[in-house]
Amino acid sequence: MQLAREGKDLGMECFVLDDGWFGHRDNDRSSLGNWTVNQKKFPHGLAHFSEQLHAMGMQFGLWFEPEMVSPDTALYHDHPDWVVQHPYPRVSIARGQYVLDFANPEVVENIYQQIVKILRTCQVDYVKWDMNRNITEAYSAYLKQQGLPQGEFFHRYITGVYHLYAKLLQAFPDLLIEGCASGGGRFDLGILYYSPQIWPSDDSDAAERIDIMTGTLLAYPLSTFSNHVSAVPNSQVRRNTSLKFRQDLASFGPLGYELDLNQLSSDEKEQINDQIDWYKKRRQLLVNGTFRQLISLKDKNKFAWEVEAGSNQMVGFFRKLAKPNEALDQYFSLPNSNNMQTYSINHDLVVSGRVLKNFGLREPYQFNGSNGDTAQVSDDFQSYLYEIKQV
User: Fold this and answer.
1) Residue 297 lies in a domain
2) Distance CA 255, CA 199 (A)
3) Residue 318's closest CA among 206, 199, 200?
4) Residues belonging to the active site
């Protein structure tokens, strides 16, 4: 609740309770498949916790990993045949867990009944659906029992996953489910029918996410991304990047924060509060606008993204590594600009659409050792935002 209150003060809207709230889950080697509230951690239940969050005007998000089971659960002991495994004595385990056989309708129904009981007892607005273990030894005891070919396993498994999604959304039509792409390889059009928002990767390092998003945005809209500003040094690559760089990048699409707010300085909290206020005023544009990449993908160091909706545009410029003697006057064009219109840039400079279309925006001046008074960006991992409006 202390974290939630801090988040509310900074302008955040949804508090997500991640892994560890269920069973006796004190580490990642137990309790998957036992979707009951850990009374030691939540002695008054999740309903009480959810009520407190909603009373302060926050939404409540909850983590599940529905397709997995831990070997220490009653579900596994009572139904060992519900696990994806070959009919041989030696069975592989990974991450301390097994994959449940979602080709079996009984498995889907069991998990549905467990999850729906939780969702009915407390007001959950958002589900973070994780999938952390890939399928090995793809074999279904259920298909064997039904006399169906094992070659149908993967198809029947994913239709079982879809069926669970469908049942949950039929019961809770206003529920937003965010799917997992990093572990499950699920970033596809079929799953987006059920989970229109996807977690692109556990690698939340901003420099890495430029590449991840640049590639994925060739095929998918910004609204499908969940973008988190995470702590530094980054947990995946141990890289340090500025809070501004992380926030500017994560603002293209649904914005979230994934760090301990109690560990931040007052200056960092002020930056976050300002960013969230700025983002909310432009959220419709940044989440649902038309997206374009303005610099050739052959350039692996510089990136320029444009989002447009009506008369408003936002352009983000990102540079991974600083260049000491790069020419100061370099431009990238905005090919969709209207030759007959006039545009303001960052509420200051006014230029014609003809200039933006045929000549372009000047890249922000970067520090080169002697231009400290005029440099707009410096150091590695630079970002600069251009807000463009038709006058």
Assistant:
1) no
2) 12
3) 206
4) 130, 202
